Amino acid sequence: MKIKIIPDKCIACGLCHVHAPEVFDYHDDGIVKFYATDQQQKELPDTSSLRSAVKLCPTGALKILEDI
Ligand code: SF4
């Protein structure tokens, strides 16, 4: 599934890393990014932990763009 991050909405709470540490990393200021890329959209395996991270982001800074 394709995930989009919206850094402008991120409040640097760190919750997404708790659920999906293999996916989400942070800039020095704590704002979300994907590991190993500065792209804001990424195709990733559909996992329950990743869905939890998206669902539980308190500000809607993570979106699922499509379900395959
Ligand atoms: S859960 Fe949402 S607000 Fe918190 S760090 Fe991740 S993207 Fe940012």
Name of the CATH class:
Alpha Beta
| DSSP strand count | 5
Record the strand order, biggest sheet.
4-1-5
Largest sheet: 3 strands, antiparallel
Mean pLDDT rating: 95
The CATH architecture is 2-Layer Sandwich
Question: How much helix is in the residues?
Answer: 10-25%
How much strand?
25-35%
Distance between the termini: 6 Å
Count the domains: 1
Radius of gyration: 11 Å
Given the helix and strand composition, which structural class is it?
alpha+beta
- Helices and strands, in order, run as EHEEEHE
Total of DSSP H or I helical runs spanning 4+ residues: 2
- Which parts are unreliable, with pLDDT below 50 for 5 consecutive residues or more? none
GO molecular function: 4 iron, 4 sulfur cluster binding; electron transfer activity; iron ion binding
Domain 4Fe-4S ferredoxin-type: 1-29
Protein name: Ferredoxin
Organism: Lactococcus allomyrinae
Describe the 3D structure:
This protein has 68 residues and is α+β, with helices and mostly antiparallel strands. 21% of the residues lie in helices and 26% in strands. The strands form two sheets. It has a three-stranded antiparallel beta sheet, with helices on one face. Strands 2-3 form a two-stranded antiparallel ribbon. A hairpin with a 5-residue loop joins β2 and β3. The longest helix has 9 residues. The mean pLDDT is 95. The site of iron/sulfur cluster has 13 residues, from α1. Keywords: 4Fe-4S, Electron transport, Iron, Iron-sulfur, Metal-binding, Transport. One of its GO terms (molecular function) is iron ion binding. Ferredoxins are iron-sulfur proteins that transfer electrons in a wide variety of metabolic reactions.
